[in-house]
Write a structure and sequence with these properties.
The protein is mainly alpha-helical and 73 residues long. The protein is built from 4 helices and no strands.
Length: 73
């Protein structure tokens, strides 16, 4: 579930960064389906980068959660 959420989040940001190419009223193309999004080379590279950095990110998250904070238990 986390991987799917990550994929959709990355896809959303890629699409948003492209920005609108036409006024909203002139857009008639349907939204891309998941297979189309996953086939995009930018998405493939981004997901590969995320997967390659997974161990480091997980270690950093563990380290952050070990920082003492209230209620200090």
């Amino acid at each position: 579930m986390t991987l799917v959420r990550s994929i959709l989040t990355v896809a959303f940001f890629v699409i948003v960064q492209q920005g609108p190419t036409q006024p909203a009223s002139a857009q008639t193309a349907p939204a891309p389906d998941l297979e189309t999004i996953l086939a995009d080379p930018k998405i493939v590279k981004t997901l590969d980068d995320i997967k390659a950095d997974d161990a480091r990110a997980f270690a950093e998250q563990k380290h952050i959660t070990e920082i003492p904070a209230p209620p200090f238990k």
